[in-house]
């Protein structure tokens, strides 16, 4: 049953990625180099929410689910797994825009704090923040 394992592993990875998109900026407060990975991930998360497109991991998950004999689903990962937790009534375009704005706001706030810290420590480049 390798497809069942791949399905579960992909779901776990997808949840982890969504968490990283939302909260990964907090890692930047500790390790500056995390920004090199987090900024593109956060940009991708905002893009997916605002564009209404499906993340490529969703069709891949459905492919694995189908091969494992499991039921597939319509819509995106956020709509299928996250929205029932946050908003049981379902996903609307307005909600997607709000989620994208929330991701952007959280990350802009965290990066503003990080940049303020970095400016106080001239001469350092993308290394760990001293004292953090």
Summarize, please.
With 132 residues, the chain is mostly helical. Helix content is 70%, strand content 0%.
**Helical content, roughly?**
over 70%
User: Rounded to an integer, what's the Rg over CA atoms?
Assistant: 17 Å
Sheet having the most strands: none
- Average per-residue pLDDT, rounded, comes to 81
How many β-strand runs?
0
How much of the polypeptide forms β-strand, as a percent range? Answer: under 5%
Principal-axis shape equals elongated
Order of helices and strands: HHHHHH
Low-confidence stretches: none
DSSP helical segment count: 6
Distance between the termini: 44 Å
Helix/strand structural class: mainly alpha
State the main characteristics.
single chain, about 130 residues, mainly alpha, 6 helices
List the helices and strands and how they pair.
Blueprint: H1 2-23, H2 25-30, H3 35-51, H4 57-67, H5 77-86, H6 93-119
């Amino acid at each position: 049953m390798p497809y069942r394992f791949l399905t579960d592993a992909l779901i776990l990875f997808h949840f982890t990625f969504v968490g990283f998109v939302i909260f990964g900026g907090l890692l930047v407060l500790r390790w500056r180099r995390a920004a090199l990975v987090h900024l593109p991930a956060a940009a991708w998360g905002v893009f997916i929410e605002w564009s209404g497109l499906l993340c490529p991991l969703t069709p891949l998950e459905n492919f694995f689910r189908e091969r494992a004999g499991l039921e597939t689903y319509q819509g995106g990962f956020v709509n299928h797994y996250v929205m029932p937790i946050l908003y049981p009534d379902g996903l609307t375009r307005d909600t997607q825009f709000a989620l994208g704005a929330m991701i952007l706001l959280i990350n802009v706030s965290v990066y503003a704090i990080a940049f303020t810290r970095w400016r106080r420590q001239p001469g350092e480049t993308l290394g760990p923040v001293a004292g953090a």
